[in-house]
Amino acid sequence: MSAGFLSDVEAMYDRAAVNVDMPDGLSDKIKACNATYVTRFGVRLRGRMFTFRGWRATHSTHSGPAKGGIRYAPNVDQDEVEALAALMSYKCALLNLPFGGSKGALEITPSDWEPFELEKITRRFAQELMRHGFLASATNVPAPDVGTNQQMMMWIADEYRRYKPDDINGMGCVTGKPVEGGGIAGRTEATGRGVQYAIHAFFQSERDRHAAGFESDKLEGQRVIIQGLGNVGCHAAQFLSVDDGCKIIAVIEHDGVVRNADGLDIAALKAHQIATGSIMGFEGGTSDMNGAAALEDACDILIPAALESVIHADNAARIQARLVVEAANGPVTYAADEILRQRGITIIPDMLANAGGVVVSYFEWVKNLTHMPFGLMERRQTDREHRILAHSMEKMTGQSFPSEHKGEFLAERGEIDLVRSGLAEMMHQAFAEVSAHAHQSRDGAVTLRDAAYEIAIKRISGAYQAIGL
Question: Can you tell which superkingdom this protein's organism belongs to (predicted)?
Answer without folding.
Answer: Bacteria
